[in-house]
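Researcher: Please predict.
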Amino acid sequence: MREKQNNWQRIEAVIKWANMSTNYFALYIGLARGENLYQIKRGNNGISLDVADRIVSKFPQVDKLWLLTGEGQMFSEERIRGAQIPYYNVDVEQGIAHLEHLDAESNLVVPPVGACDLAMCYTGRAMGNIVPPGTVVLLKAVDRDAIIPGGEYVIVCRKIVTLRIVRAADEEGKVRLVAGDRENYDDIVLNVNDIVSVYKVKGKLIINSIAHNGVCLTVVDITEDTYTVTAMKETLDRSNLGLLREGDLVNLERSMKPDALLDGHIVQGHVDQTAVCTAKEDADGSWYFTFEYEPQGAGLCTVEKGSVTVNGVSLTVCDSKESSFRVAIIPYTFEHTNFCRIEVGSVVNLEFDIVGKYIARLMQNYMK
């Protein structure tokens, strides 16, 4: 049986669900300092009734009893919680044939996706971007006769267990199992009578993050040529994502792997604020852009030859002032990002250097 979450784990669950930083969450619920929450994280304080009331007043979906005690579910309404689906933390192609010998690690609470029997992790690569490695697949057991060509299914046979797209075969009594990545994985043709059990993929929880104009967003669905992300109101208000219209270009960047070469400066994907382009100068193929912003706190500033992120692009500041800065854009960056669309008056996202933020915070604490 899964252990009950401790005080900080419950607070952290709400913060992650709200897609906020700890400090911003503290301010959002009306706490003067994020330190109140960090004391809970350190185990020095519990969750007081006042803190619980503040959270529930801002997020009425959150169950106060769960917040205070850990009993029950995070969300108070069934329509918000969705169905509870047993989750088995094993690869679906390795474990689903032995389901009767497995114990569910926990229950997943997901938005309604239709009736599901269980959830498992997919770690294979044959499905490519349709079902990327690490995806949690939500499954429903169905009869062989209920297979609809073109759908995604986990097919269990005596000799093979695989997640594939099922299509009709040329020969009667057979089915063709098609990989999402057909360049690297061959089709599999099976006799229908060899199929022991079938699980239809009813939903996918795709655990991927992609930065959009410097805003890190979680991918919740992928098709062959599109994907879907979600952004809450605070993200839209703080960044230029709320200004996007159909057809607008955005800069995309996948998250860096821990063992990858760090080239540039550390970018978290947490936009601090927006700025406005006030000048654009052609410099024989390269470009100079000047951006003006309203200083909003210690550490949210630039320094000469320091780093700043504009629409997710890591840049070096070449002219730093109190509320503006200038950057140089080389032709490659200009052509491969939406800097080619930025004009005077355009709104861009800013993320200031995380090192500068920490130094500013340490200096604040030192001067107290």
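Model: The mean pLDDT is 85.
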